[in-house]
Amino acid sequence: MASRSQHTLRIALAAGAALLLASCHKEPPVLPKVGPPAPPAAATPAPPRAAANLDEYKVQVAERILASNPQQTFSGRLPPMLPAIVVLDIGIDRDGGVSEARVHRSRDKAASKVALAALAAGTPYPKPGHLLRFGHKTLVFSETFLFNKDYQFQLRTLAGPQ
């Protein structure tokens, strides 16, 4: 049997080991409370990228016309026989306003009115900037409106090969 002194020694050693282990233990750091994530800030639309050339600018204008007239447009394949085709001569001033809009070609007055109204609904357009020739106040180009039987249109600039 172990003597009383050995028993006391064992208790002392056990208590010392417990103290030693307790001194090594660290409490986990207390992290600050975080609420629900804040909603993302409202994204401000980036200004349109300046077109490098007239073809890029015509795409920007065509996209703006379509975006402003979703009820008047259709997508997909064009019908084999187009009931109406309207060609507009369009002038855009340095501020993106329509400075001129003239029907260059059309055989259908109703389709011409739809095309002119669609152009007006899209203002303001991207500023033509460096595409304006020296001394000119307006960039002039043509756009072709391709109509189906319901007087909905596609734009030739965006229609692609059919």
Largest sheet: 4 strands, antiparallel
Mean pLDDT: 83
What strand line-up does the widest sheet have?
A: 2-1-3-4
What is the helical fraction, as a range of percent? 25-40%
Cα end-to-end separation: 104 Å
Beta percentage is: 15-25%
- N to C succession of SSEs: HHEEHEEH
Spans with pLDDT under 50 lasting ≥5 residues? none
Tell me the radius of gyration: 37 Å
Individual helix count: 4
State the total count of DSSP E strands: 4
**SS content category:** alpha+beta
Question: In one word, what is the shape?
Answer: elongated
Task: Describe what you observe in this structure.
This protein has about 160 residues and is α+β, with helices and mostly antiparallel strands. The protein has four helices and four strands. The chain has helices at about 5-25, 55-70, 110-120, 155-160, and strands spanning about 85-95, 100-105, 140-145, 155.
What is the structure about, briefly put?
This protein has 162 residues and is α+β, with helices and mostly antiparallel strands. 33% of the residues lie in helices and 19% in strands.
